[in-house]
Amino acid sequence: MSEQALTVRSVACVNAQLLEQLAGILIDCVEGGASVSFLHPLSRDKALAFWEMVGKGVADGGRALIVAEQGAEAVGTVQLVLDQPENQPHRADVSKMLVHRKARRQGVGAALMRKAEDVARERGKTLLVLDTASDAAERLYERSGWQRCGTVPDYALLPRGGLCDTTFFYRKLIPGG
């Protein structure tokens, strides 16, 4: 990653340039073996279609999209799925926390998670949940104050095949905290 400062922001509208950058991050993560709902090889068209769907969710208010940028280049992203059942208006799911391999181990993931928590508080959420199949992500979440709930064996497929376990976490948010 270059020496340019990292900017983390909530995105209100997903334009074509951002769609391309987000598709590149997703493809890189899948190529790197991340279990993030897609199998290898992930085509650019499939990645773009996914981010177009996310963009629609952002536009209709059902999702919040947070992007970490180094200069004009997106290097990481995370989403909040805000649209929950009527008996769970206080909760959001953290989804697709992705950091390009070239930007890892530089604080991008931690910055994305802090911003996601801030956005969740702004939206009136008091409980966040997520799942991960990554040991590195588990360490990040634990350092950030998330509570491990448990692990489900053989929950999903890895991008190149083979089953992987998935660990679930939650974080209670303190309003204004």
Describe the fold and architecture.
The chain is α+β, with helices and mostly antiparallel strands. It has a domain at 6-125: Gcn5-related N-acetyltransferase (GNAT) (Aminopeptidase, 3-Layer(aba) Sandwich). It has 4 helices and 7 strands; from the N terminus they run E-H-H-E-E-E-H-E-H-E-E. It has helices at 16-31, 44-59, 108-122, 135-143; strands at 6-11, 63-70, 73-81, 91-99, 127-132, 147-157, 163-172. A 7-stranded mixed sheet has the order 1-2-3-4-5-7-6, sandwiched between helices. A hairpin with a 2-residue loop joins strand 2 and strand 3 (73-81). Helix 1 (16-31) packs across helix 2 (44-59). The longest helix is centred in the first third of the chain and has 16 residues, at 16-31. The radius of gyration is 15 Å and the shape is globular. The two termini are 30 Å apart. The mean pLDDT is 96.
How do you describe this structure in short?
The protein is α+β, with helices and mostly antiparallel strands and 177 residues long. It has a domain at 6-125: 3-Layer(aba) Sandwich (Aminopeptidase).
